[in-house]
Amino acid sequence: MKKIVKLLVMTMFLLILAAGCSKKDSADTSLEDIIAKGNLILGLDDAFPPMGFKDDNQEIVGFDIDVAREVCKRMGVELKIQPISWDAKELELSTKNIDCIWNGMTYNEDRAKSMTLTMPYMKNTQVAVVLADSSINTLKDLAGKTVVIQNGSTASDAIDANKEFKDSLKDLVKVDDNVQALLDLKVSGSDAVVMDEVVARYYTEKEAGTYKVLDETLANEDYVVGFRKGDKSLCKEVEKHLKEMAADGTLAKISETWFGKDLTTVK
Ligand code: ARG
What we know:
CATH superfamily of the largest domain: Periplasmic binding protein-like II
Number of strands: 12
Number of domains: 2
CATH class of the largest domain: Alpha Beta
Structural class: alpha/beta
CATH topology of the largest domain: D-Maltodextrin-Binding Protein, domain 2
Shape: globular
CATH architecture of the largest domain: 3-Layer(aba) Sandwich
Largest sheet: 9 strands, mixed
Bound molecules: arginine
Distance between the termini: 62 Å
């Protein structure tokens, strides 16, 4: 009997040792890997102005793009931009098609579990957008109406968190991107789009007189950058540059070009 116990203890000891070793094998080389390959592939849904979107020359531009380009410059690597479907972002990361998601991505607990996230860099709220000439002025006015949101976006979290509002709706429709959702508002039977305020404000200004943003908000959010789960050294390096860019005024400057004021929250 004693022998068996000894054997068991030995086996357990060996197993623990083996686990320790394999942990070493999967050590985090994320930063080294990026430096070695010389580029960082940024994944985005390119219909998300002004964070990242195609301009009239079909070039991808935006606040997040300018910030990422400066971070890459400081890291000595090239920024590569890869459009993806927002709903497939976690898959795109895990299959290594992209190295990060940097596109007005809101922090939430699920994402914190499936990715390695930076500190927040900007605040956002979820708002409802309706046509400017609509008689809808409050969230209550949306009772019995059809609301559109983007697939895989935190607009869905915001609606789930406001049960009364959710239950009052006739229909909740999901589409691939917000540009599509806003277009639908003009041409089809939907009544409102619940989306990021940062994007909604950009649209209401760009297409003056077409849309209005309701005053009440549905959720307060923080934007973060997402890396593959475990890519901590890469995440830390990006955070370091973001902090330096906050301190030397670069972040504020980039924010002013896109928003007319400094909306960044990095300290
Ligand atoms: N901030 C929201 C989220 O993280 C919406 C983002 C939606 N789309 C995008 N292209 N970034 O889900």
